[in-house]
Specification:
The protein is mainly beta. 5% of the residues lie in helices and 46% in strands. The strands form 2 sheets. It has a 6-stranded mixed beta sheet. A 4-stranded antiparallel beta sheet has the order 1-3-8-7, with no helix packed on it.
Length: 119
Amino acid sequence: QVQFVESGGGLVQPGGSLRLSCAASGFPFSNYAMSWYRQAPGKERELVARISTTGGDINYADPVKGRFTISRDNAKNTVYLQMTSLKPEDTGVYYCARFVDYLARAGSWGQGTQVTVSS
C-alpha cells in the first residue's frame, strides 16, 4: 500500500529554518513526480512545491519562491523540503503526496508534520 511518513516539523521563530522529510513506500517512487502541500486551520490546502521524477524540473508556489527548496533521493525513497526565512504565514500542517494524486485529490496521505512559525 502507498504510504508516506512526514517528519521534521516543529516550532521555529520567524526567519528560522526547518528541513522536512517524507519517507515513501508501497509504489515505484522514482516513477512519480512528488509534491509538498500545506494546510492551515480554516484554509484550503495549498501546493507548496513539486519535483519531477529525477529532480530535473521543479516548481514552487509564489509565496515560497526563493525561500524553500524541494529535493529528492530516489535511492532512499525520500523527498525533502528545506525551508528558510520562515514567516508566520508558513504555519500549517505539511504533507507530501504524489503530484498526480494531489491534482486529482485522490490517493494516500500521511499524518503530516506541523510547522509553527511564531515569536
